[in-house]
């Protein structure tokens, strides 16, 4: 079979792909300034406009930060979870996914993670959770308390051994963090009661993890997340995911 008119990928995309591979593999560490444009143009055999187009592609992916001015240049960065959450939010929105659906997904992700932590009983994990619990005990009511209480959930994912679930959970965590601030009261008796209840449950979960009570820990965490979801959505008008991330 004869194939005609087969075009190669745009040169800028090929340059971006080569640099991307080196960045994500760690061959070019975060914070590194790339060589001058003239040197890169010679290495890749491309023009300045082509190189700059490749830079724009990588900048849109949060893999480069372009610094302007005399001491400017292209600096290697790492993608932020906020960027991932925003792109994911656009996809979820286009698919008609609700904010509630995101919270349901959190239950599906976090419960097995809690079970895993209780089964492992890793002293280092327990120590980190104890530090978070100690900070929670000193909280004053307000927006900061909401963020701090949400940090316990983030730690559950961060301390899990399943890297892929960590990344997915962190992406959802950013969306949930925004929703917590937007949809629930942060001051007043109701907010104070909810904060105390959450902190108490976190302490109970920690004790179950320390005792290796995996099944009980998973069940309590499921009930906690379901109650938190009911509290969050009670009487609120649910906005779209994209609105939360704006």
Automatic annotation (TrEMBL):
GO terms for MF: DNA binding; DNA-binding transcription factor activity
Keywords, sorted A to Z: DNA-binding, Transcription, Transcription regulation
Start and end residues of each HTH gntR-type domain: 9-79
CDD domains: WHTH_GntR
Annotated Pfam families: FCD, GntR
Highest taxon listed in the record's lineage: Bacteria
Name of protein: GntR family transcriptional regulator
Species of origin: Mycolicibacterium pulveris (Mycobacterium pulveris)
